[in-house]
Write a structure and sequence with these properties.
Elements lengths: L22 E6 L11 H21 L3 E6 L1 H4 L4 H4 L7 E3 L8 H10 L3 E7 L1 H14 L3 E10 L3 H13 L3 E3 L1 H9 L5 H6 L5
Parallel strand pairs: 1-2, 1-4, 2-3, 4-5, 5-6
Helix pairs in contact: 1-7, 5-6
Amino acid sequence: MRGRGGSPGVLVARSVRLDRSKAVVVVIDVQERLVPAIEPGALARVLKYAKALVGTAKEMGIPVIGTEQYPKGLGPMVKEITDLLPSPALPKVTFSCGADDGFAKALAATGRKQVIVTGMETHVCVFQTVRDLCAGGYEVHLCADAVASRTDLHRTTGIELMREVGAIVTTAETVIFDLLHQAGTPEFKKVSPLVK
């Protein structure tokens, strides 16, 4: 076995600690014409945690970038999330956000290297985006409870593929409390209800 930067047989641990000064939240393609194809329970979970991640980012001053895949055909991002975004979602036609110039420029402009990912569909746009971001040197934190596909097999396969390409597979709640770091603060009191 070879760890990162290590020799054969030596495992080198990598840090999975989030730093709010290095983090950015990316919400991928949670769009009106995609949501009817998602199982209702899975959709409710994604919406809950995507909104929690965006709300947390807003409270902590963390940038948020939303995207829409071919909005002419798939419609806009759902209003529940659009209303929370600090700026309009970026339209794209490439499945990977990383292959879209507008997104790449917006992400680079944040100066952040820790990318927290939520959205759909897990095995297509989310996977291809994560693959490109990992290849581009970003540390990607994939919130497994905040992504969805039309079938659970597609979702679980997408998550496995993203782990293979180097993403840190986590949950929205883990991310939120890692960013908070401690309880009892005014920030904690505003953010913690978002995951209840």
